[in-house]
Amino acid sequence: MAAATDDQLGFASDDDAPIGYMKRTRDYYEAIGYTTPYRWAHYTSAPFQPLKKPLNQSRVAIITTAAPFDPARGDQGPGAKYNGGAKFYSVYDGDTSQPHDLRISHIAYDRTHTTATDSGTWFPLAQLKRLAAEGKIGEVAPRFFGAPTNRSHRVTIETDAPEILKRCRDDKVDAAVLVPNCPVCHQTVSLVARHLEANGIPTVVMGCAKDIVEHAAVPRFLFSDFPLGNSAGKPHDGASQAFTLKLALRVLETAPGPQTTVQSPLRWSEDASWKRDYSNADALSAEELARLRREFDAQKEIAKGLRVA
User: Fold this and answer.
1) What does the pLDDT look like over 69-99, one tens digit per residue?
2) What is the mean pLDDT of the chain?
3) Angle at the Cα of 39 (from 37 to 45), degrees rounded to 5?
């Protein structure tokens, strides 16, 4: 009877809601043996800086958590397993007039439901250039910036965010679009967005982890209910990527105040069952959990070596 009523009233499945990544990852890490829960950044208010000039006169920068491809750092190709050896621990930048091969093997994107075959889903430089050519923005900033995905809030707040602010100021950036991938990436860019905004640079976060971004209280957020790794649109779908960036820029222009969230109307699939899978400890056997713990510990040691180096 309930199912029939749901159909009659057009109700969606209870599964068809944004994934609670903070709880999901907390439960997952507890299941593999890490019993100290991670403290996610939490604020109840956000700074807010209106655009100082019209968007079609503004210089816009991209801030990404993707990493430059380095063939010496193991498998970073589509579908590669989590690769701690590909991580970076300092802010970097790249010339936006040149092509770049940025990848996401170093972070915990949704490897079950996306394969990382199209960098346009996490690095919207081509779309931003197209909008500049069409006169929708003034120009693309001369550099984009890479934000290290750091579990340490203090390092992000006291080291990385100020460095990104400095580089934005050096490039006379008027506004920034921040594009995260994994759960911690969403926290990282949220903290960076808050710092930029508090220091006069308007921002918009494009992301897929609604709970994490809103927990950190960002000025503006475009939420796409897609698997992690697709903050800038669907893979191999130029229309989706164009729509997503245009909508993010509209949020940048029109947000009435801080903590404005707009949800994209685009859907990943009519079947919402994909939302059950990411880091779902309840779906894993004891043997699988033990294997995942061993793999995670091994990757931690690799990443630790990079930090020390």
Assistant:
1) 999 999 999 989 999 899 999 999 999 999 9
2) 94
3) 150
Residue whose token pair is 């040149």:
98
**CA end-to-end distance (rounded Å), the chain:** 63
Residue 301 has pLDDT above 80, yes or no: no
Q: What is the pLDDT of residues 19-68, one digit of tens each?
A: 999 999 999 999 999 888 999 999 999 999 999 999 999 999 999 999 99
- The domain in which residue 253 lies consists of 55-263
**Is residue 94 situated within a structural domain?**
yes
Q: Which residues pair with 204 in a beta bridge?
A: 177
| 175 in any annotated domain | yes
Q: What does the DSSP 8-state code read for residue 160?
A: I
Give yes or no for residue 303 having a pLDDT over 90.
Answer: no
Place of tokens 């809103």: 214
The rounded distance, in Å, linking the Cα atoms of 124 and 232 is 6
Scanning the structure block, which residue is given the tokens 């580089």?
A: 167
What are the angstrom distances between the C-alpha of 24 and each of 36, 81, 93?
A: 14, 20, 32
For residue 72, being part of any structural domain is answered with yes
In a domain? residue 306: no
Q: Is the pLDDT of residue 292 over 80?
A: yes
Distance from C-alpha of 95 to C-alpha of 150, rounded to nearest angstrom: 24
Domain count, the chain: 1
Q: Where residue 229 sits, what CATH number does that domain have?
A: 3.40.50.2300
